């Protein structure tokens, strides 16, 4: 037997905003992907490295699912989250939602999904599920992964049961919009100022503008950080540009959010933030290209140049967020 919900199965560039778009359009709320990302205060930065990691990781957004929680709180959406250690209960939760006509969001490890182009362990991947039959589950993932796709029920169970960094216990979630939904336009300034506050005042030096500055110093040592620079440096650059970030480590998405917001909120601070994040997006793409080139050439000068650009980025993004933080005044 096949059970499939009629949905708008548009994919997008980033996994969590793709899933949120599917769930919210089913509720009659159609927002652009940059607007979803921005209203969820999704932009951030982390330089992540530890002894058990093969290579450092540069992250450009808040931790998985925080964006969803932020968006639900800001827009007054009812967010129901279910987690369990039981695979049987986890499947029952999903089936109950779909049988009732509601698509459901899932957080899982992308490595096990049949359709994934370049399998890599990532426990913070998010998809929307809208149907199933005796063999397969029907999902919506990013455009890069195929948009409306299917994966075997066995692979889905493995992906949901996986453990590791950023993984959740068979997490599934639903969003419900209230009848008197507050205007998304009214949530733009609170979402931006909350994002700016976190970015400007990180609790540790690995986060926010301080993290970018730190990355600028440490990236120069990356050739010594790996036994396989021809593998690890291009892979790091690929993750910055292609792995669901929308390009430029999520800065393209935030730039476009600020452009859309500037049409709704007349403010010189907004225009300044948009101008600076347009510059930042270009610099992040340049940084990724220099890191990839260093891996291919083995020339430390490429990493020195990347470090210099990251130093500029720390300043540019700090100035952007300082301007944007003034929106609440």
Write up this protein.
By secondary structure, the protein is of the alpha+beta class. It has 2 domains: 3-30 and 78-176, Alpha-Beta Complex (Cathepsin B, Chain A), CATH 3.90.70; 184-328, Four Helix Bundle (Hemerythrin (Met), subunit A) (Up-down Bundle), CATH 1.20.120. The chain contains 11 helices and 9 strands. The strands form 2 sheets. Strands 1, 4, 5, 6, 7, 8 and 9 form a 7-stranded antiparallel sheet that branches. Strands 2-3 form a two-stranded antiparallel ribbon. β2 (43-48) and β3 (57-61) form a beta hairpin. α6 (188-200) crosses α11 (300-325), α9 (251-262) runs antiparallel to α10 and α10 runs antiparallel to α11 (300-325). The longest helix is centred in the last third of the chain and has 30 residues, at 268-297. The termini are far apart. The model has no long low-confidence stretch (mean pLDDT 94).
Helix content: 40-55%
**CATH class bucket of the largest domain:** Mainly Alpha
Form type: globular
- What is the ordering of alpha helices and beta strands? EHHEEHEHEEEEHEHHHHHH
Domain Butirosin biosynthesis protein H N-terminal: 14-142
Pfam families: BtrH_N, DUF4872
Organism: Saccharopolyspora erythraea
Domain DUF4872: 155-324
Task: Describe what is shown at a glance.
The chain has 329 residues and is α+β, with helices and mostly antiparallel strands. The protein is 47% helix and 14% strand.
